[in-house]
Amino acid sequence: MEITNSIADEFxxxxxxxxxxxxxxxxxxxxxxxxxxxxxxxxxxxMSAPSGVNKQPWEFIVVDKPELLVQLADVLPYxxxxxxxxxxxxxxxxxxxxxxxxxxTLWEQDLSASSENILLAAHAIGLGGVWTCIYPHEERLxxxxxxxxxxxxxxxxxLIPIGYPEKEHAPMDKWHPERIHQNRL
Length: 185
Known about the structure:
This protein is an alpha+beta fold. It is about 35% helix and about 15% strand. Helix 3 (about 35-45) crosses helix 5 (about 105-125) and helix 4 runs antiparallel to helix 6 (about 140-150).
């Protein structure tokens, strides 16, 4: 088997595949509202992610109040664009659904899969977003908990502002064949 950079025509015609490879991080949003139906579709995709032992340890806080978006932008150093987004989703881990023992940190992988689904779904329906980090930084966790009135059982993992891209973005070529190893290193 020879792995190449070329994308076969059969994949170029596949909308789902092309949506994955054309997704970009969007940090500037047009002044256009995101509908409740769009957010519901995105959250449906988020909850379709795989999770260890099917624990589904996620909870989602949908933030659409401008004053809360500004407050979150003010306390998160890499989420300043949130102040101009019509909506943001804070992906949280529910400790009551975390696994025990050696698997106790697998919730991070579960929420990562769910977060990627959010980004892919947003892109697929003509919106854009960007993953901004909250967890594991205490200086970010506590202000977000306070702003959103989160109980101790919820860990804010990341914040994803979502909106219509202000302009079209060309995807970066992230193909690095030197990082591919077949069978063994």
